[in-house]
């Protein structure tokens, strides 16, 4: 899968060169292109922002450099062009799964007070917010989206861990333990060392339900409404 990121601050994306995303890029499972919007500014000072018409605080990203950057990256193709913005649709695991079906995403990081509305109208196909709070720019949000989407691309991580993790099927995860069997007086639940795989599976399911009920009753309600729970879960 291919990601292209348009930003005024390409230096903010160093974290994508670590860990799983680094390995996935080296393996060619994903590729991430970084593009500095300022490279498409045509004046001597490479100006990418200007004061808002109508007055007011802050600066607005200019239409021409941003539009030229998007068009240069997209060329004749039509990948989704996604603006990261606090005004966008909420980012969820379901949206991450949907985006992971695409072969190519173009992510545009907004900055300053926003961008010229006319670029939104003519070139942005979708807007995504990672939460109801305001960041200094779309860069961290773009990294969140790349990370959550990339790990769903086949081959990036082991598929088993995706199937049983928080949010993948409407429930939170069960607790995990590794050696030693007793740590600071706390023992691992006996069932996990019993060797009874069927009982372990039942225990994990129960723990997922318990944890979701206590921490996220809203999620449990939704899982029930969507028919994601079976009769054993409800007993
Ligand atoms: N840019 C600024 N705040 C943001 C948010 N919450 N989500 C996505 N992009 C943003």
UniProtKB/TrEMBL annotation:
Binding site for S-adenosyl-L-methionine: 110, 130-135
GO molecular function, one term: tRNA (guanine(37)-N1)-methyltransferase activity
Enzymatic reactions: guanosine(37) in tRNA + S-adenosyl-L-methionine = N(1)-methylguanosine(37) in tRNA + S-adenosyl-L-homocysteine + H(+)
One annotated GO biological process: tRNA N1-guanine methylation
EC numbers, comma separated: 2.1.1.228
Subunit-level organization: Homodimer.
Protein name: tRNA (guanine-N(1)-)-methyltransferase
Gene source species: Oscillochloris trichoides DG-6
Gene behind the chain: trmD
